[in-house]
């Protein structure tokens, strides 16, 4: 599922980033540019991040 349309970032990509140690929104923003365009994905990205971190 695509979470960030602007940067074509899927939930799988977020999971891979979390597995690599990027487990905060600022880190994802910095490394993947997640949410740095229109910002509409911010809420859903946060939800996905939360789920990935809790699954760790
Ligand atoms: Fe993520 Fe636009 S959908 S910045």
Automatic annotation (TrEMBL):
Domain of life: Bacteria
Keywords, sorted A to Z: 2Fe-2S, Electron transport, Iron, Iron-sulfur, Metal-binding, Transport
TM spans (from-to): none
A molecular function (GO) term: 2 iron, 2 sulfur cluster binding
Domain (BFD-like [2Fe-2S]-binding): residue spans on this chain: 2-50
Statement: the UniProt record of this protein carries the keyword Metal-binding: yes
The family this protein is said to belong to: Belongs to the Bfd family.
Entry protein name: Bacterioferritin-associated ferredoxin
Organism listed in the record: Noviherbaspirillum pedocola
Segment of the intact protein contained: 1 to 56 of 71
């Amino acid at each position: 599922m695509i979470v960030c349309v602007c940067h074509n970032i899927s939930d799988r990509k977020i999971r891979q980033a979390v597995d690599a140690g990027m487990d905060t929104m600022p880190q994802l923003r910095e490394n993947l540019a997640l949410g740095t365009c229109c910002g509409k994905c911010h809420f859903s990205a946060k939800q996905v991040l939360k789920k990935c971190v809790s699954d760790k």
